[in-house]
Amino acid sequence: MATTKFRHVFGGLWGFATSCKKNSSTPIGSRILQRDVEKEEFQYASILCLSKYYSVFVVRLAIMVMLAILIGLLTILTWHFTKIYTTKSLNSLAYDLRYELLQRPILRMWNILNSTSEITMAQVKLSQYVIRSHGNLTTQENQVEMYEAMRAVTWALFASRKALNSITVKYNNGFVQAFHRDLKDNNTFYIYSDLANYSIGASASSYNSDINYSSLSSQESWNDHDNKSAVWYRQPLDPVTGEKIGKAMQIAPEDSIHIAGLSQVPDGVASWRVVVSKFTDSPLLSAALPVWDASNKSIVAVVGVTTALYSVGQLMKELVELHSGHMYLTSLEGYLLATSTDVPLLTNSTKPPKLKMSVDCENEVIRLGAEYLKKSSGNKFPPSHEVHVANVRLGHDRYYIDSFFLNLKRLPMVGVIIIPRKHILGQEDKRAFKTLVILISASMCIIVIGWVCILILTNGVSKEMKLRAELISQLEARRKAEASSNYKSQFLANMSHELRTPMAAIIGLLDILMSDDCLTNEQCATVTQIRKCSTALLRLLNNILDLSKVESGKLVLEDAEFDLGRELEGLVDMFSVQCMNHSVETVLDLSDDMPKLVRGDSARVVQIFANLINNSIKFTPSGHIILRGWFENPNPCSDNANHLMEEKNLQCAQKTRTRQHENHAKRTSKRDNKAILWFEVDDTGCGIDPSKWDSVFESFEQADPSTTRLHGGTGLGLCIVRSLVNKMGGEIKVVKKEGPGTLMRLYLRLDTAGDATEQHCLVDIANNGLVVLLALHGNMGRSITSKWLQKNGVFTMEASEWNGLTQILRELFHTRNSAGINNDFDLHYPIHESLKSKLLSIQEIKNPVFVIAVDIGLLDLSTDIWKEQLNFLHRYVGRAKFIWVLNHDTSNTIKMELRRKGYMMTVNKPLYKAKIVHILEEVVKERNHEMQKKNMDELHESDYTHCDAASSDDSDISESGPCNPVKSEKVEQFHRLSLYRINNCLIGLTDEHSEANNTPKKEELCQNNQNSPKSLSLEQDYFPREAHQGEDSESRGKEEHRIIGGSARPVNGKKSLEGLRILLAEDTPVIQRVATIMLEKMGASVVAVGDGQAAVDALNGLLGVEDFRRDSNLNERNTRSSSSQTEILSFPSYDLVLMDCQMPKMDGYEATKAIRKSEVGSGVHIPIVALTAHAMSCDEAKCLEVGMDAYLTKPIDFKLMESTILSLTRRTIS
Amino acid sequence: MREKEKERKEEISKMDVVTQMQRQLIQYTSSLFQEGFLDDQFNQLQQLQDESNPEFVVEIVTLFFEDAERLLNELSKSLQVEQESIDFRKVDAQVHQLKGSSSSIGAQRVQRVCIAFRNFCEQQNVEGCLKSLQEIKQEYSLVKTKLETLFKMEKQLFAARGSISR
């Protein structure tokens, strides 16, 4: 048991150790799991984990089995040894007992034998003595006397031994004397033969002759005597005294007892045998001895003694009664001599009775035992063979059988003792069984407890393993789900072309329909409705496709350098138009530390914010939308702090940010060039329920489903945003905000290009004594701008309405003019204390320059009062610079009026940093200029040279000097273009405006446009960047193109591509012709070539073009455009190239590469639009890679081509 | 007076004929669209046709016929069975051209077979290519007859109109 326990504990420890090992290996596993689930690793991990799980299971099982085996073995061993020892000792004890038991009857047997032989000997000796003393038996009297003496002697002996059955003396003359004791009725008899028949002489002679001659013949003669002529008498005697009590009765010799004769002692020595008499039912032992005469030469008489074996049986019975079992004694031949039972030993059926064989014994046990012995040792029992068998089945019970050999001369005997096993080992067997049961149950208990312990000990491990296995299966399931979702996305991505083409066709056809004049009003309305729906559908389609593109991993982010600030400014410009209608203010608030140039996919970044702002606009009926951005802040704590600060004071936060930035910038610059850019889109809309903060980013999820009815939308926008943000290594979430509205915060990981931070040109505007009066409508924008200016050392004042403005103006200038009036004004217009202090501090500024930014919205435009207001302001022109902040829908009359009054600086809303910086720089420079050349009478011409360079900034400041109309026109035109680029929605409006505004100039320009290489070359200075930007906006704003398709159509019958010269490289004549006609319908002049080589040649000014033209079957058109052919010769430049990708000789890619190569160094960049039949993005990527600017798929869509070409060439026409 | 009435009646009957023809033409065209012979690209072509190019569609389609026949000839030449090795790239380029021109006139069934053809080319499956070639030929002749009928009808209509206006 101790070992079992030890083993058990050991097993437990082992289990613990293994679990420890498992535990130590878990981190690796979990780390693996935590990583991005890459397939291989995942599978490896899963196999590892599963195998671990199974191994634990197996180990557990093994431990249990080992324990079970061990305990089982121990139990069996214990039981076995106990049993063996007990059995051995018991067996030896039992053996002793049996031996002892058997010894006693054998001793008795010996006793009987000994006493019999002793008596026989004594009788013989006495007979010898008596016979010798009566030496001469010559007379009858002598003989009788001798017989009398013999009788007395014999009686004495017989009486002394009660156990004797009989004593016989047979003389050689045939006379017999015998005493017999009948054990049945306890009578004693004297038996003798008739004396008269015996003659001494005859007998003597016969004796002599017998001895002399042959003992055999004499023996026969004795027997003859006995049988023939003997007369026998039996006389009962008193058993004690020996006196005759009855009459002698003659009996037949057969009836008498057995008389030992000469035949019993053939060789004159004593003999032993077992006899049977009719008087007893037990066998008798008889011994016979001869009596020799004095000379020892002849036998005088034979003495026989018979003893009953009854007493042996009696003893056996007594013994057996005490110990139970059976005993019996057999002769060597197998005759039963004595048994411990009462069964008769003699057969009764035959006469005379005979001895029974032991195998025929009526007692079953004895018979079976005898049979067993016979079987085991054969028929012949070998002498001195002893059998000891411990476990013999006789009948139903088990017995011990032991046999002993009793070697008597002439009468070897076998004693057998059969003792039931129950008697000796019964208890022991029972005990053994009980012990076994107890042992087994105990070991069972131990095994069970051991198992439980093992289970408990290893349960932790197995539980963990089970969990891990579950996790694996779940991951597997997730992977499958992702894969299936991927398939879906892939399918959608592949379907892009198939989906977009029909939509484009629908919209294009609708446009055609709408332009048709013959439609009734009703039809027109319906078609317009259809057009709107189609646009919506297309937008939805684009969203889904975008999303699926991202999800299927087909979206490859571009990695190009771009000006983040400018992109965002453009975005805000675009949305501000939309916001105006909602009376929502859009504010861009980028911190100064934002890196100017970053690397990434500008189109996608813009898409992110476009979606977010769009979303905000949708849900913001009034208030403001702020797009904030700042550089880095990985620390969530300071982020929170930052956040709180913002809540309290948005403007102050900027300072904090700057400070924080200084710390973090160092840190980030150490890590690669990756910068973390934080953005916030803050609106004052209806807000999102906090419980939906996470789910709004799911596909087709909207915070409030009911809003769909109100605002429309599909719920895909934010999902796309999140996908894109995640793709750029960032995160987006909704953040808690005080007050109404939603605050979305996100960060992007973008490469900063070169310098992490830009060096602002603020140095110029600070410390120049500038005083800026911001008279702007929007509170948020105004305060942000003002704070920012103040931070940069510019003194600012704010006014939100007309009265405030006038008040400040009066205060400002009247106090400066005359302090006396000041008091009057104090009376009339109570001034704020803060304003007062400001005014005071302004007075301290030396030589201040006043800049007044007036929102046109401050004027009362509904009536004609605005003119008077303008006149009022005009009074201050000499003392302050006015900047007019225009709305996009400001009417032309106002603009005309402003221009008429000589206000040169106008700026479109919204006002953001870059614009302000630009304006202020302008002001400063102008002032410096004035100061330098105060005395010189010069025109402002030089002012505008920098204007060109500066206007590469993405602002739409326009200046028009009356003295320099050509230049200002150019500038204006440029601004319109850049505006178009930023916001396609503005095209039409700007167009309209410019057309209405200066139609004559425009017409003039149109005429000159083709042959004004001067202006063209000037434009080309901006070209590379513009083209690049254009392409971005093209891909970003595809949908906008379509939306504004209607407004972009030719107005006043003008063709949209009027005056453009386009080189078409296309080998398939059909397509070539179609495209040519399309382009010509749009007003462009087209030169078509058949392969890439020809295109390159044509661009290089070779005359191969003409050759081709002759070949091509443009019969009619050729003649008509012969006039333009001369133009080609004189002006071999094209505005755009449409390039098929697959062409003989030289394909589109090669041709483009060649063209771009030839352009290197010349600064020229001709827009190339790819025409391809492939619809997948990889082709697009390839096209863009080789230097093409845009991408059109075949079949050519009229509208799409128009808008694409327009977007690329807009700057060259006006 | 009677003569005038007669003329008027004639004119009216002619007008009827014209409207009927017009209807027939429209039905036929729409059937072409419904059966998928043509797609909206053909519409665009028709849009492009104006006074300056009155025969534009016919011209383009004729161009297409010429081009397609040339390409089909070349294709069957290069796909001849006797040829040891077939230049699949050449075949592919030719089919691509055919695809481009057919899509440009809006013969979308031809275009579709072209796409299948190109797939076979990619797999270098000669049997598939031959099968597709047969299909293309079939589709081409179908669309050709359809278009010719269409043009004939248009011509008739035009003639009828001309007679009225005269």
From TrEMBL, chain A:
Residues annotated as carrying 4-aspartylphosphate in the record are 1140
Provide ranges: composition bias, Basic and acidic residues. 996-1005, 1022-1043
Where does the Histidine kinase domain start and stop, copy by copy? 494-752
What are the protein's UniProt keywords? Answer: Endoplasmic reticulum, Kinase, Membrane, Phosphoprotein, Receptor, Transferase, Transmembrane, Transmembrane helix, Two-component regulatory system
Q: What is its EC number?
A: 2.7.13.3
**Per its UniProt record, what InterPro entries does this chain match?**
CheY-like_superfamily (IPR011006), HATPase_C_sf (IPR036890), HATPase_dom (IPR003594), His_kinase_dom (IPR005467), HisK_dim/P_dom (IPR003661), HisK_dim/P_sf (IPR036097), Sensor_HK_Regulatory (IPR050736), Sig_transdc_His_kin-like_C (IPR004358)
The cellular component terms of Gene Ontology attached to this UniProt record, alphabetical and capped at eight, are: endoplasmic reticulum membrane
The listed locations are:
Endoplasmic reticulum membrane
Which Gene Ontology MF annotations are present?
A: phosphorelay sensor kinase activity
Q: Does the keyword Cell division apply?
A: no
Ranges that cross the membrane: 57-79, 436-457
Q: What is its main location?
A: endoplasmic reticulum
Query: Per the record, where are the segments of Polar residues compositional bias?
Result: 1006-1018
Question: Domain Response regulatory, which positions?
Answer: 1061-1209
**Chemical reaction(s) catalysed:** ATP + protein L-histidine = ADP + protein N-phospho-L-histidine
Membrane topology for this entry?
A: Multi-pass membrane protein
SUPFAM superfamilies (UniProt xref): ATPase domain of HSP90 chaperone/DNA topoisomerase II/histidine kinase, CheY-like, Homodimeric domain of signal transducing histidine kinase
Q: Where is this region: Disordered?
A: 996-1050
Q: What class of enzyme is it?
A: transferase
**What is the protein's name according to its record?**
histidine kinase
From TrEMBL, chain B:
Query: Which ranges carry the HPt domain?
Result: 53-160
Entries under Pfam families matching the protein: Hpt
Q: Does the keyword NAD apply?
A: no
| Protein's UniProt keywords contain Acetylation | yes
Compartment annotation: Cytoplasm, Cytosol; Nucleus
- Which SUPFAM superfamilies does its entry note? Histidine-containing phosphotransfer domain, HPT domain (SSF47226)
Q: Which PROSITE patterns match?
A: HPT (PS50894)
Q: Which CDD domains match?
A: HPT
Alphabetically sorted, this entry's keywords are: Acetylation, Cytokinin signaling pathway, Cytoplasm, Nucleus, Phosphoprotein, Two-component regulatory system
What are the GO MF terms of this UniProt record? histidine phosphotransfer kinase activity; protein histidine kinase binding
GO BP terms: namely: cytokinin-activated signaling pathway; phosphorelay signal transduction system
A GO cellular component annotated for this chain's UniProt record is:
cytosol
PTM annotation (Phosphohistidine): residues:
96
Physiological role:
Functions as a two-component phosphorelay mediators between cytokinin sensor histidine kinases and response regulators (B-type ARRs). Plays an important role in propagating cytokinin signal transduction.
Annotated domain remarks = Histidine-containing phosphotransfer domain (HPt) contains an active histidine that mediates the phosphotransfer.
Q: What is this protein called?
A: Histidine-containing phosphotransfer protein
State the organism of origin.
Arachis hypogaea
